Amino acid sequence: MKFGAVPLAQAEGAILAHAVKAGGVALRKGQTLGKGDIDALKAAGRREVTVAILAGDDLAENQAAEMIGAAGLAAGIIASKPHAGRVNLLADHAGVLEVNATAVNAVNAIDPAITLATLPVFTRVSKGQLLATIKIIPYAVAARAAGVAAAKMSGAFKLHGVAKTKVSLVMSTVDGFKPSLLDKGRRAVETRLARFGLGLTDCQIVPHNVAAMAQAISESKGDLLLLLGASATGDIADTAPEALRQAGGEVRRFGIPVDPGNLLFVGRHNGRNVLGLPGCARSLALNGADWVLERLICGIKVDEAMLAGMGVGGLLKEIPTRPQPRQNAGETKGKVAIILLAAGQSRRMRGRDKLLETVGEGTMIEHAAQMALASKADTVFVALPPEADARKARLAGLAVRPIKAPDYGEGMGGSLRNAMTHIGSEYSAVIVALADMPEVTPAHFDALIKAYNPTNNQEICRAQSEDGTQGHPVLFGRRFFEALADSQGDSGGRAVIRSSKDYVLDVKTDGNGACLDLDTPEAWAAWRGEDAR
What we know:
Layout: E1 2-7, E2 15-16, E3 20-22, E4 25-27, H1 35-43, E5 48-53, E6 58-60, H2 61-71, E7 77-79, E8 86-91, E9 95-99, H3 101-108, E10 114-118, E11 123-125, E12 130-136, E13 140-142, H4 143-153, E14 157-160, E15 167-173, H5 179-194, E16 200-207, H6 210-219, E17 224-228, H7 239-246, E18 250-254, E19 265-269, E20 272-277, H8 288-297, H9 304-308, E21 335-341, E22 358-359, E23 362-363, H10 364-373, E24 379-384, H11 389-394, E25 401-404, H12 412-420, E26 427-434, H13 442-451, E27 460-464, E28 470-477, H14 481-484, H15 494-498, E29 504-508, H16 521-528
Parallel strand pairs: 15-16, 15-17, 17-20, 21-24, 21-26, 24-25, 27-29
Antiparallel strand pairs: 1-5, 2-5, 3-4, 6-13, 7-8, 8-12, 9-11, 9-14, 10-12, 18-19, 19-20, 22-23, 26-28, 27-28
Helix pairs in contact: 2-4, 3-4, 6-7
């Protein structure tokens, strides 16, 4: 591939390296230049342009990424369409991802132009979640290199789906043990199972002694048995593991090098796996039991070597998926920004601009900005098309920060991608809001800010209407900033929500404002109680 500035006479059929304006025509980075484009550049006074020219043995970036991505497919793994040299591999169902590090490293060693990034090995994933991304860095890569990469992708990934469908829980209690702790423990277990579409087959609560727990173990019906004692297991001969032995089972290991979650044990009973949960499993915060439980549910062999090998990366207390366990609930430790998406083209309004429709004493765009400014958010950004003088004029005098969204024609994803470039390190969360929702109030924004709690994995907070319908606005914690900055098409943040369901909390709000948007003259007339004719 040849890259650099060339005379316009040599540029037809080449790939434009950088976006340029030619008079009134905007030429996009990555587009193939045609004769009309060259003529526009000439008319604008350009003599040369920076391009990429493919050689005969090159594959274009999208073609190469698609070939390599297709080679990495396996049961339960699907590929996205190529875009800008990138193909994503996604989970088609919930499960645990196994990654062959040797294969991944081999792909990345072929050519720096070919990159493959993956989730860590044995990551639990939900349906639609991003597993890996193939990115071709330049505009093309040698066909031979792409072919070698595709060959090495075979067997790089395996998505283990649910194998154990019946799960039993035995909990023990002692005098003075709060019933709320039993409820909390059961809810935590049920939440973990629900991530895989499972529920409890049976749940028994018995006294914390060997005989009672042994009988409950024998009577449990699941093909996977979980034990959650009232008292932490402090030794391999303690109550819960001894009860397993008394019931005819065996304890295979007590203790793992993961913190929190050291004090768990694994064993067998009548041909099924048994997991003795640590006390910290009553919380939904990530702990060592999550790693073991997820693998057992998905039929992955959990042996001595696997458990002993969990120490590297096993210090969980400060990692992003378990942020600051002693952090106060609701504390964001940073600013909150609102991104008001106001770059829509009002295609269904038959020539009218819905954001200039009258709401109260002003226009829709003014009203949306005022509602956002009246909330507890620190900054309000308004994403606008480059040519939006009428909309921008309506924001004059309001303490918002208008930003240009040159990719608005792509849809919400383009506007959001442009807006995220303005979100600095001082922000811990952003709220994505639509500018055509007249009944969204400051209370909607404030409810999301109040609900945001990374400690409890409440990192995507989505407004619901009073009847439970999911809608807007939506708050995203810092964990998701990079994904939002890569938004594509008209999906906006929906793709991030679909791939991160474990972090989503639906926040009920008053009225119908969270799902009322007005896209047609008829909708506006109905909302005002007018005749649309």
